[in-house]
Each structure stands twice: as C-alpha cells, then as structure tokens.
Amino acid sequence: MKPLGNLPSLEAVIQELGKLPGIGPKSATGLGYHLVSLPPERVKRLAELLQVLPDRIGYCSACGMLTESDPCVFCREPSRDRSLLCVVEESLDALSIEKSGAFNGLYHVLGGTLSPLDGVGPAELRVKELLERLKSDEIKEVILATNPSVEGEATASYLRNLIADLGSGIQLSRFARGLPIGGDLVYTDEETLALALQTRKPMEGE
User: What pLDDT, in 10s, does the model give residues 109-128?
Assistant: First the structure.
C-alpha cells in the first residue's frame, strides 16, 4: 500500500485492518477512511469496546466456546440434550448451527483444524479436552461437524479413530446432504444446516 502522505496515524490503522481475515488492501483503506469520517464520539465508543474485549471475553472451560461467563450459556442450559455432542472448529460454527434450530445438544469447540504445514497438530487443538468429556456416561453420540474442507475432513477422520479407540460405544456421525465440498458452516444458510443435521450419517471405521 502506498504511503498516505501526512496521515501516518490513519495509515497505521489501515495496516492493522488489513491484517484481519477477509479484509484486503482496498477494503482496509475504505474502512479506515470511513472511520475518520464518523463523529468523534462514535470512534471513541468503538475504541472503548475493542479495548475491553480481552478482559470481558474468554473461553468456556467446558466446551471452549467464546463467552463472557463461565460456563457458557449452552453448557449451563439444563434443557439441552447432554447425550449429544457436536464438535465444531470455531465458536462461529456452533452459532451457525444453533441458528438452524435443528440441534439442542452440547458443543465442543476444537479451536481450528489439523494443519501440519501451519504447525497445527492435536496439541494445539482442544482434542485432549474432548476425550476427557467423552469419559462421561452421558454422551451417547458425537457429531463431527468440522467443515467439509481437506483439513476439516482430515480432522474428523483423526477424531473418529481416537474416539473409536476409547471403546466406549459412542455413536459417531457426520453431516450428510446439503453442505458443499470445501464450504464453511458459517456461510451456509440455516435451512441447509438443518437438513445436514437431520440427515447425518454414522461414520464407518476404516
């Protein structure tokens, strides 16, 4: 990006915005100029909200979901089916599934997918915590709802083998119809997610 002349403060903001996922140089520049065009009180309010995020938002100690209270709202809801556990990559995936209205069990957020080229192995994900949760007699079915990408499928296959080795008799299933290969749950409409949940299929061992 070309220097913005006598606007080093704005240039620094644009550079930070450009580091966000899905934000290219043009979008970052547009957002930066939009911010400085806002009334000062709105900019200050946004800055205040961003500043307190690290102190107010953390991770649920039970499921790994982003939350402002521990345990999170899903884990502490007594009406949820505690025999059903849905394993997702990120908190946003769980929220997308929740919006479909087709799931009333518990969640487990891995915090990503296996990606050896990026240095992400089982130790960098919440795999150990997942296996600890599965020692509970309450969980009867685990839905491996990682995204239908190469990394997501590899992670689901890895978890399937680990859980099968537990010998606990837990049923393993995977989303079925409707999800495009390589797609993300976050960008899938609610009807498609509901159908994928309702038509989920058992995962067979290798």
Answer: 999 999 988 999 999 999 99
